[in-house]
Amino acid sequence: MAAFTSNKTHHFLTRKLTTPTRRPLKSTRVRMSLQESGPSLAVVGVSGAVGQEFLSVISDRDFPYRSIKMLASKRSAGKPLTFQGRTYTIEELTEDSFDGVDIALFSAGGSISKTFGPVAVGKGAIVVDNSSAFRMEEAVPLVIPEVNPEAIRGFKVGMGKGALIANPNCSTIICLMAATPLHRRAKVTRMVVSTYQAASGAGAAAMEELELQTREVLEGKPPTCNIFNQQYAFNLFSHNAPVLSNGYNEEEIKLVKETRKIWNDMNVRVTATCIRVPVMRAHAESVNLQFEKPLDEETARDILKNAPGVVVIDDRASNHFPTPLEVSNKDDVAVGRIRRDLSQNGDHGLDIFVCGDQIRKGAALNAIQIAEMLL
Question: What's a single GO MF annotation on this record (predicted)?
Fold first, then answer.
């Protein structure tokens, strides 16, 4: 996810992603969020897509704070930013940015996190990092609050020292929100995931290019290909992450490794194929599960209906199942197409289809939920 965006890109992002379903940021939220007893916050990469979503989630969930620093690159420094009725000045990210900060929310890319994350920790801040920089480090918890909250048991603001906590990859979060409740009941031994990932995963500039290409193709013009090296509109292609020597790309390997770490199970077999599709926002995933214990589809449906952060959309009669549009700007991950895998004997396999907002639960919401656990 691109961290720092131009004014043009930011306006595009705001225009494209604001829908009537988002609750208005009422003035009462200012009084409820700004609390002297709350922690001091820093948002790193505040001008980027996820940085902006951090602020939306803070407002939507009435996250308490006594102060907040808006941090970004030198290019964005000095620009005004209005949040909850107050006007802030975006500050340039430096080593001095974390003095007195309790919780630092990072979404500025791996290189920024590697440079400034340890600096923030050294100043006593608890860093919740949205990049891949620290996810696979053994000492760094990789957390989805609904899935493995025990990974940060004992982590609290005011514990006297800083710490690093990693946000998983968006595809991993969306997948495991649905797979984990079933895993707890019947134990997943093998999982096959095919993802259909939106432009939002590549940042606001990619979303802007998809809109531009759509116009160009409809007008018979050659498409502009600055973000991706091939036509995106009316097309789909293998995820643009670098391809490794084994033929998997980095996005696919993240799903494999992160699932094993989050589930604390190095023996679970995971394979993935990640595809970029011309959808503006929210990822979709087809997930095939093989279980150690039998689990029938009706029991699975009941488990998912009662799972936190999950909504079931599974109407076979009207052929209505989750779509990216339905989950855009929504907190919950939607699950449908719940059915027995006919290729496996008995009730030892299920297929499900999952959709989740990549910027919301796949990034900003998950990070704020982690921050809530630190209070």
Answer: protein dimerization activity
In a domain, 156, yes or no: no
For residue range 81-119, list pLDDT tens digits in order: 999 999 999 999 999 999 999 999 999 999 999 999 999
Query: Long-range pairs for 16-21 at CB < 8 Å and ≥24 separation?
Result: 16/207, 16/211, 16/280, 16/281, 17/281, 17/328, 17/329, 17/359, 18/329, 19/328, 19/329, 21/329, 21/330
Tell me the C-alpha distance between 327 and 309, whole Å.
Answer: 12
Tell me how far apart the alpha carbons of residues 259 and 74 are, in angstroms, rounded to a whole number: 36
CATH number of residue 339's parent domain: 3.30.360.10
Are residues 323 and 184 part of one domain? Answer: yes
Which residue segment(s) compose the domain that 286 sits in?
Answer: 172-359
- SS3 for 32-93 is HHECCCCCEEEEECCCCHHHHHHHHHHHHCCCCECEEEEEECCCCCCCEEEECCEEEECEEC
Q: Are strands 188-197 and 269-276 parallel, antiparallel or unpaired?
A: parallel
Lookup: tokens for 46: 């505040």
HEC-encoded secondary structure of 214-251: HHHHHCCCCCCCCCCCCCCCCCCEECCCCECCCCCEHH
* Active site members: 170, 283
For the segment 170-216, what is each residue's pLDDT rounded down to a tens digit?
999 999 999 999 999 999 999 999 999 999 999 889 999 999 999 99
Number of domains making up the chain: 2
Q: Between β-strands 40-44 and 310-312, what pairing exists: parallel, antiparallel or unpaired?
A: unpaired
